[in-house]
Description:
Elements: H1 3-23, H2 30-47, H3 54-70, H4 75-89, H5 92-95, H6 104-113, E1 120-124, H7 132-138, E2 143-148, H8 151-160, E3 167-171, E4 184-187, H9 194-204, E5 210-214, E6 225-228, E7 236-241
Parallel strand pairs: 1-2, 1-4, 2-3, 4-5
Antiparallel strand pairs: 5-7, 6-7
Helix pairs in contact: 1-2, 2-3, 6-7
This protein binds S-adenosylmethionine.
Amino acid sequence: MPPALKALLAQLVGGIGAYALARHGLLNDLGSLVAAQAAIATGTAAAMRSARWWLPIHLVFLPLAVTLRGLGLPPGLYLGAFVILLLIYWTTFRTQVPLYLSNAETAAAVAQLLPSTPVSVLDIGAGTGSLLRPLARLRPDCRFAGIELAPAPWLIGRILGARLPNLTWRRGDLFTPSWTDYDVVYAFLSPVPMGAVWGKASAEMRAGSLLISNSFPLPAREPDFVAAVGDRRGTRLYLYRIPAQRPAR
Ligand SMILES: C[S@@+](CC[C@H](N)C(=O)[O-])C[C@H]1O[C@@H](n2cnc3c(N)ncnc32)[C@H](O)[C@@H]1O
């Protein structure tokens, strides 16, 4: 079951459970009703084996909503916050890849890993371009391209990279365009899509080209090389050389 659906189900079970307890006279004020909903929702999420970080979210969700409602804030504020989050995270509930950015140390490490000859590089899920902009400045002989799905990061990347002649920027799904023309594909995604990323890379990329994954190794495939960036985050880059003989997926 997709995590967002599990979360919705846990909240509903929490609501139904708290309502049933109230009907039996076991809860007699708003505070205990809210606490019961939160506890049941959290227990349900744990029973459905939701990722650990969902549990504190379930625990505070309704108590926070009720507290904020008590503050009497204008409803437009909630709508505004929702729209901002939507533009930043877009379909994260489906892709399970949120926005977080490669740091300057990672960009410098990737620059060291690029061949000395001119190459073309694609960042799949390019965010705001925090990896591609420094690379495009460091290597004017190379071609860089970014593809990003979420509107706000895409727009920020487009504005910030507008003056770089060797950077192209497009909005779309990373699985749609062909990766055949790229010598290096860089991914900083999450564990969820890595199997599909390897499926597409091994089907489309030329033999000898390079897939670099920041932080998330491919499932069931040993990297050809692992580079430690040496930053505070302890970032590791997993490098996979596309073989001439394509392994079965
Ligand atoms: C962890 S961020 C990495 C951003 C950038 N590559 C960097 O290293 O700074 C992942 C990005 O991938 C984007 N993304 C997730 N799924 C995508 C998809 N199917 N197609 C295009 N972009 C996607 C997200 O919106 C997010 O901005």
